[in-house]
Amino acid sequence: MNPRIILHIGQQKSGTTSLQHTFIADRDRLRSKGILYPAAGHRRARQAHRFQPSHNGIFHLLEGQRNRKLPESIDVVAEQLHREIREAQPEVVIISAEHAFMAADQEIDVLAGFDELLPGPKDVVAYLRRPDHYITSFHKHDIRMSNRLPGLHTPERLEDKLEPGTS
Questions:
Q1: How does 34-51 read in b/e, with b if 16+ C-beta sit within 10 Å?
Q2: pLDDT tens-place string over residues 83-112
Q3: What is the pLDDT of residue 167?
Q4: DSSP letter at 105?
Q5: Of 10, 40, 60, 137, which one's alpha carbon is 20 to 30 angstroms from that of 73?
Q6: 98: nearest Cα among 47, 132, 58
Q7: Which of 10, 40, 42, 37 is nearest to 22 (CA)?
Q8: 66 phi and psi angles, rounded to 5 deg
Q9: Is the pLDDT at 115 greater than 60, yes or no?
Q10: Which of 59, 77, 76 is nearest to 113 (CA)?
């Protein structure tokens, strides 16, 4: 029996990282209930022995990105993911990645690539925020992280995102 696949593609600054940390912390308890939050597809954190809590690495690889923080290749991730599913025999597999949401702006159809990685029907859950709350939160994040670039959502940086004829 194929497990139910839940793809969580939460927008940044909508609580997705907190949810992902909970999935990591409760991985064993979730597994005992038939829910798998796979280890495959995580990016390496700054400390080489740790991993980021999301599955963004899968979607970075599907976009063709390569760097030392990413898993070796999408084929390696696929092999690891399918092995985890075979071993756990879960009823549900949860994949959570903000980058899958952000990739909607890209020319590459990463969701089609993900469907090849894990064929079959999927439930897609997208976490969103009101635009005014999102912009404020993202700007505060930029300040907290000491980004020296102009704010992400200044008129100059938004200009190229707007469709012709909108304001």
A1: ebbbbebbbbbeeeeeeb
A2: 999 999 999 999 999 888 776 656 568 888
A3: 47
A4: G
A5: 10
A6: 58
A7: 37
A8: -140, 130
A9: yes
A10: 59
Provide the CA 106 distance to its chain's centre, in angstroms: 15
User: Alpha-carbon torsion 55, 61, 65, 68, what sign?
Assistant: positive
Q: How many CA atoms lie within 13 A of 10 on its CB side?
A: 18
Sign for the pseudo-dihedral over CA of 50, 56, 59, 65: negative
Q: How many CB atoms lie within 10 A of CB 158?
A: 12
Extract the tokens encoding 162.
Answer: 């707007």
Structure token pair of residue 113: 């690539």
Query: What is the pLDDT averaged over residues 53-58?
Result: 88
Q: Mean of the pLDDT values across residues 48-54? A: 69
**pLDDT tens figures, 121-162:** 999 888 777 767 666 766 666 666 665 555 555 555 555 545
